[in-house]
Amino acid sequence: MAVFVEQYGVLRWSAVIAFCLAAALVVARLGQGRLWVSADRESDAAHLVMCLVMLGMLVFPTAVDPHAVRGVLTAMVVVYTLVLGERMLRWRSGIADVDGRGGPAGAFVYHVVAAAAMLYAMSGHGSHGHAMSGHGGPAPEPMLALAALFAADASLMVVPWLRHRLPRVFPHPMGSAGTLAVVPHVVMDLGTAYMLLAVAVA
User: Fold this and answer.
1) Which pTM does this prediction carry?
2) Domain that holds residue 106
């Protein structure tokens, strides 16, 4: 993955700028959650953590320790799954949302899937971000399929007609939020698709 990231510098630094923008918007949203439409602080915090992890992998592709990244991603999957479980319990109990907590369960379905996808992508990488020998690494086909899924979700958020007309099993994490509010989610979608693509072609 490190080779792909370093080889395509324009994509790499465009992704870095996009993640920085998304992180700044999320920080502003966390600081002034009541001023934003459909604020969900737990989901925003999850976006921010993922942005920071992605930035570390992009800015320091050969220096980052894959074992440390896998540890962080594993912890994220566990925490996000626990939050998802708590939200489902609140939903079943009919507990009302308070101060941006206990938002739609779909938001954390998304976060669990995103973190798990990146964890799977990193499962075959050893030191310096190179794929380990043998058959223990991720197959390219699932990586490409997941990248397409995240790219499709970004399309849903960018095109209002698609966002409002297509049926969804879970409420979308961003719901009917305004254009500025969907930027971090779109960046996460496209950034995750980019990282999965980098793993698939590495």
Assistant:
1) 0.79
2) 2-201
